[in-house]
Specification:
7-stranded mixed beta sheet, 10 strands, globular, binds 2-oxoglutaric acid, binds fe (ii) ion
């Protein structure tokens, strides 16, 4: 079972995410925002052919650096409910958390299942993944189209965040994140999940993102994915989320200062 909560219910969202490892926030993002993001991404999606290799089922269009390609995605990253729920999971273990990646995933028909995985697995053997370890990551998927059982809604294994890391999930334990356009599925870095096959004629579009503890390396290098000349046009809180502000005054500084990217000259200078 994947719990659903209302867009304003941060406390219920945080407790459901902690208990089940996944929660769906219904109708969180306005369709006007989704449509703006998709319009901004359209030329990039148009220029991409379905593919993506076996990890993406061979029939997905994947765009990285969505925040740099679609400025309208900034309001998703700073959504109060998304951040409120993430605060509850990640703030106990960091001074600030940061964006680990932004991507768009358009799943086309005739692909394969994405292998089940945990998003935190790219930290390799260097972190403690025991059920008692702190959470390192919160991932989220904004439904850019309706997500249905037929069109490739993400499959997740509720409760798997409490499993020993070597327990392998069976497909029968997965539940799909069926949700309306604008709804957001959030899951923990330790929750087992994967993209499903699209058995319809129309693509399934998801806008994916994640936040990691501010002292961990981001999966997608945000300073290259969203360089200062683009970041300077984004709101201060989004710049901070991308990692342009230090974690504490001693981690991530340049020239001894706590920067925000206001001008090209302000970056990397005294
Ligand atoms: O697109 C999906 O349904 C899931 C994608 C995913 O889990 C990933 O790219 O890590
Ligand atoms: Fe994933």
């Amino acid at each position: 079972m994947i719990p659903h909560i209302q867009a304003t219910d941060i406390d219920a969202g945080a407790s459901a995410l902690g208990e089940h490892g996944v929660v769906i926030v219904d109708d969180l993002i306005d369709h006007s925002v989704i449509d703006s993001v998709l319009n901004e991404l359209e030329p990039h999606l148009e220029a991409t052919r379905p593919g993506g290799g076996t990890f993406y089922g061979g029939q997905a269009k994947r765009l990285s650096a969505v925040i740099a390609k679609a400025p309208s995605f900034a309001s998703v990253l700073s959504n109060a409910t998304l951040l409120g729920i993430t605060d509850a999971v990640l703030k106990p273990n960091c001074n600030r958390y940061i964006v680990t990646l932004t991507a768009a995933l358009e799943v086309w028909p005739n692909g394969d299942l994405q292998p089940l995985h945990r998003d935190e697995q790219h930290y390799g053997p260097y972190l403690d993944y025991s059920p008692e370890a702190p959470e390192y990551l919160v991932s989220f998927m904004v439904a850019g189209t309706e997500f249905t059982a037929a069109n490739g809604a993400t499959r997740l294994v509720p409760g798997s965040h409490r499993w020993p890391v070597d327990r392998v999930a069976d497909e029968s334990e997965t539940v799909q994140a069926a949700m309306s356009k604008g709804s957001v599925a959030m899951w923990l870095g330790s929750t087992v999940h994967g993209m499903d096959i699209n058995r319809t004629k129309f693509p399934r579009t998801g806008l994916v993102g994640g936040f990691c503890l501010g002292w961990l390396r981001q999966e997608e290098n945000q300073y290259l994915a969203c360089p200062p000349e683009i970041a300077m046009n984004l709101p201060d809180d989004v710049q901070a989320l991308l990692g342009y502000r230090p974690h504490t005054s001693l981690l991530g500084w340049v020239g001894g200062r706590d920067h925000k990217v206001q001008t090209r000259q302000a970056v990397g200078t005294e």
